Amino acid sequence: GAVWFPWSAWQTRVTERAKGKTYLRRGGGGTRAGKAATQLIASGFTNVRVVDGGFRGWKAAGLPTEKSPVS
């Protein structure tokens, strides 16, 4: 399944991520995700995708979402 990481966590822990896995980047509307994807590719990640329209686009398309329990 998918795991969400804030971009700040990626920037500080990027060396811990497997470069051959698939990574989806999304922002609220997709703009920041494109910038983040560019940085990941420049760092050697080979399978990076950006979700068109960001999270708003995902929800508008009727795709599934779930909320994490608040601890």
What this model shows, in words?
The chain is mainly alpha-helical and 71 residues long. The protein contains 3 helices and 2 strands. It is 37% helix and 8% strand.
Helix count equals: 3
End-to-end CA span: 21 Å
How much beta, percentage-wise?
5-15%
Q: What order do the strands of the largest sheet run in, or round the barrel if closed?
A: 1-2
Which series of helices and strands comes N to C? HEHEH
The largest pleated sheet is described as: 2 strands, parallel
Provide a short characterization of the protein structure.
This protein has 71 residues and is mostly helical.
What key attributes describe this structure?
two-stranded parallel sheet, 2 strands, single chain, 71 residues, 3 helices, mainly alpha
Secondary-structure topology with pairs:
Elements: H1 7-13, E1 23-25, H2 31-42, E2 48-50, H3 54-60
